[in-house]
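Sequence in, structure out.
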Amino acid sequence: MFIDIGSARHKKYNENAYGDYFLSKRTSGRMIAVLSDGLGSGIKASILSCMTSTMLLKFIETGADIQSACETVMNSLPVCRVRKISYSTFSAIDCSETGAARIVEEGNPQFLWIRSGAVLSPACGVISSKAFPNRKMQIYSIQLALGDRLIFCSDGVTQAGLGSPAMKFGLRREGLIDCVLKKLEDAPDISGRGLSRHIADYAQQAEVDQKALDDISAVSLYCRKARESLVLTGPPYHEEKDRQYAKLFISFKGKKAICGGTTANILSRELDIPVESRISLSSGSVPPASYMAGVDLVTEGILTLTRAGEYLESAEAAIPADAAGQLVKFFLESDCINFMVGAKLNQTHYDPNFPVEIELRKNIIKKIAKVLEERYIKKVSVQYI
């Protein structure tokens, strides 16, 4: 089972920093994630929520039990002298690929667990802080199944629209449930990233003049079968293995992409499948994508990979429609991305007329793999051939 996770957020109106902070990491067959809501808004809230999320993630990642880690943080967070409440609240989850999950919440709205269009109500245990009796954390142990969804949010979501004519008491939990269930009915296969974006946008739109009165954050987990993909780029080191790798590539059960004109020509020759060039008015500064039967995407190599890496790092909401943008979309619509990287040097890359910023294929793939793993929480493997 693959745990697809995504997050989205909006700043409080007129603030320069996000007061909520979200971190997640995929490690050793586990998905660990923490959402923290800092007290107030702006820079101070941002620092507090970042500190809380970072500490919790590090504690859990290094082997601490999620309950003891959260209890330690709950007992350590100072109290605001003015408002007499904790400097931050949090939700934390530690989930294995078998679906066994433990969730701890302190101060944040209760999470949603959705299965087959219904909201489940799991039992929980409660632990009070020894240092601060008014602080309590809820602990859940649940077993997720394929198709299940988990939704976490800050109170900027459930309190969105508070005091407005349409939502005098805010969106509340009931409004959030209604928002999520309607979206899942319209788009049952929406990604975790897509659903969290929908929730955050919905909450912002509920505010008067769409001016958020608090920081808005939403996190969505989706349990499903992994979407596998294979990217072949660069000619194999040993020419006599061209046919072997061509057959391995075309027989892969999942989405397939070729990055590189030389690589595409090798496969075309070995598999007797023509490559068709296509003219695109939206190609931008990278060569347009080509077409090969049985392959989902065929692009130029180094230049397109470099530009795709830039798009991934910038995390732009609107992905350009050029070939690099198509490659980014290919990555984002995959869960487990396998790179087969040819180790044979291509003398074209040493042409002094090439832009200085273009790096060698291996280094570009390393950068792309790192950002896919750390920012987009993808599973990535790289094999050199």
